[in-house]
Specification:
By secondary structure, the chain is mainly alpha-helical. The chain has helices at residues 13-32, 37-44, 48-55, 63-72, 76-79.
Length: 108
């Protein structure tokens, strides 16, 4: 079954700009490092059509593929540095109480 893509209007402009810059970075690094498109495709296990989508900043291409391409090209840490742990890690000993609305949530 083919993958369903979000309509272009569903992607915020800021995200489109960021993906476009990631795509330009992937293309620039590939050409600068003299890596053929077919070789990069083979290294990250994608089709040439998917590489074109990446290099064009297509929001329908998976973020994991973008990040893998950037890693293979050696620029991941510059383009998408690791998040500060304070943004995702809970403080030791802190507890989050469940609300009545949460009791109906299947994730809990």
């Amino acid at each position: 079954m083919p993958k369903k893509h979000l309509p272009a209007a569903a992607t915020p402009t800021l995200i489109e700009e960021r993906l476009r810059s990631w795509g330009l970075c992937i293309r620039h690094q590939r050409l600068t490092q003299k890596i053929r498109a077919a070789d990069l495709c083979q290294r990250i296990a994608i089709s040439p059509a998917t590489l074109r989508r990446l290099e064009n900043g297509d929001p329908g291409a998976g973020s994991g593929i973008f990040l893998t391409a950037l890693m293979v090209l050696g620029v991941l840490e510059q383009v998408a540095p690791p998040l500060d742990t304070a943004l995702w890690q809970m403080a030791t000993g802190s507890r989050v109480g469940r609300t009545k609305a949460d009791s109906h949530d299947d994730d809990f």
